[in-house]
Design the sequence.
């Protein structure tokens, strides 16, 4: 094998069409862009949703409802889940770190404790939010509900 015998693998290369290199190339003149219009001009970039001047779909379709910009999405954890966690790992304090270690949340989500289920263990709970029933149930077993 010698350097002058090396060639690219079969089918790995394509002949590139050299556009806009005069009439002899067969691709001169308009350089495959057609005649006039925005697409024929330099610097043309298609705007998202542009439909050639026709009213775009996202403006034609009627809007409905209300989107609250201050809405916060919480990951819900029930008291029954906290009870299981306290029994399995013998915990007296449950925070975000313990929930992440148990694989319930990823640590980036806001956590809200909900009142479904029964809590028997005395546990200090730290979360981003609590429902009223959950807070009452935690305090009923002499635990603390701390908002972080």
Sequence:
């Amino acid at each position: 094998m010698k350097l002058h015998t090396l060639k690219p693998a079969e089918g790995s290369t394509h002949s590139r069409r050299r556009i806009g290199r005069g009439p002899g190339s067969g691709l001169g003149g308009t350089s495959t862009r057609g005649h006039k219009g925005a697409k024929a001009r330099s610097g043309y970039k298609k705007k998202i949703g542009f439909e050639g001047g026709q009213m775009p779909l996202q403006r034609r379709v009627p809007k409905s409802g209300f989107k609250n910009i201050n809405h916060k999405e919480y990951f819900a954890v029930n008291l029954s889940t906290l009870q299981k966690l306290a029994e399995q790992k013998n915990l007296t304090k449950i925070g975000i770190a313990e929930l992440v270690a148990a694989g319930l949340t990823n640590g980036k989500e806001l956590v809200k404790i909900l009142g479904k289920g029964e809590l028997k263990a005395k546990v200090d709970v730290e979360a981003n939010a609590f429902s009223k029933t959950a807070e009452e149930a935690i305090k009923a077993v002499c635990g603390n509900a701390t908002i972080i």
User: Anything to note?
Assistant: The radius of gyration is 32 Å. Strands lie at 74-78, 93-94, 110-114, 124-127, 129-130, 144-147.
